[in-house]
Amino acid sequence: MVKFLHAADLHLGLRITRFDEATCNRIGEARFAALQQLREKATEHRVDFILIAGDLFDDHSVSRTDASRAFAILEGSKGSCPVFIIPGNHDPLVPGGVWERDPWLREQPHLRVNFLRQPEPLRVPDLAVEIFPCPLRQRRAMEDPTEWIEKHPRKKDDPTIRIGLAHGSLKVMPLPEDDHLIRPDAAEHYGLDYLALGHWHKNSRWKSRDGVERTFYSGTHEPMRFSGTGADASTGWASFSTDGDAERFHDDGHGTALLVTIDAPGSPPMIEPIEIGRLRWSSEHRDLTTESLSDLIKDYSTRENPERTLLRLQLSGVVEPRRYARLDELKQIVLNRYHAGSSLNADSVLIEPNIEQLSEVVGEGVLKRVLDRLKEDSMSSDASGKRVSDHALKLLYRIAWEEQPK
Prior knowledge:
Elements: E1 2-7, H1 21-44, E2 49-53, H2 64-75, E3 83-86, E4 113-115, E5 122-123, E6 129-133, E7 161-167, E8 169-170, E9 181-182, H3 186-189, E10 194-198, E11 204-207, E12 213-217, E13 256-262, E14 270-275, E15 280-287, H4 293-302, E16 309-319, H5 321-324, H6 327-337, E17 343-351, H7 355-362, H8 366-378, H9 383-403
Parallel strand pairs: 1-2, 2-3, 3-4, 6-7, 7-10, 8-9, 10-12, 15-16, 16-17
Antiparallel strand pairs: 1-13, 5-6, 11-12, 13-14
Helix pairs in contact: 1-2, 4-6, 8-9
């Protein structure tokens, strides 16, 4: 049996934009804190080794400080498990790059860090495990980085667990031809028990023809964007792929690694996603027409670990005038309790008008007839009916306001 952690796309040294300088620095620090967390999770789960499937660094010209700091964290301490790393398309193995400088250029192997420069099988010491590394030497290339493994077929009755370690795009959809495309059946074609991939930032998995999932992207270890949003709501990171803002490069606001256990050659891998990221990026929209502002204040003031959440809160809807002032209370909670860079936007919140003001906004036509009917219903002695009509009046105001010429 073998147990290991699969991580990828750490992008240390990432140039962060779209926030003030202090916030950018804190977000950058979180990426190193998450790397330390990866090390700590390896100890906690007693894994045999860690695999990093490319893009440890965001660029092959990353600063010496960041390069040395990452090395020191990965080396760990006495008793730490080994780490096996390949270069990806952001940090390819090129002359003069980060991998050609100390501390990474020191004679291999180090105590625990193993940087794999050559596409050749590597037997893991003291384990019946063979790693097939596929290091990249270019940011873009037409060749499948895994094709060399075909020269090393699994031998009959081979007792070793075979693990591929690669960086590129699994060819399961139309993709740029120079995006290091990997054949979709690579795991079964090369006789691999597990194919650890990097490049796509979304955690995903793919089945072999026998129905067993053996091909995995771990996703990034620390989030880079608010989930479900465009590039303008991110760190400012951009892929070197020609369609680098495609959905597969969008993380879900969480940082993860995969805890993998394989009992024996041919056995299905057992996978457990492990949260590694130090920050959570959360973009949320709340409608004050349907939700109580008091309930929102209670919600956001009692959430766990708000200091680790980068929150972007968008409010809309209609609120009573006497409660509108409490928006500032909610804003202070977001700005003071949540991570630096968090924000609250209430530009779309409307103050509930009186009937005269509402009549002026609605004007003539079909909305006026609806208003007249709702005004009658709001005078009802039936409490539940009155609540419905009052709520409908707010919705009517919102519709009429949004339909006004801007």
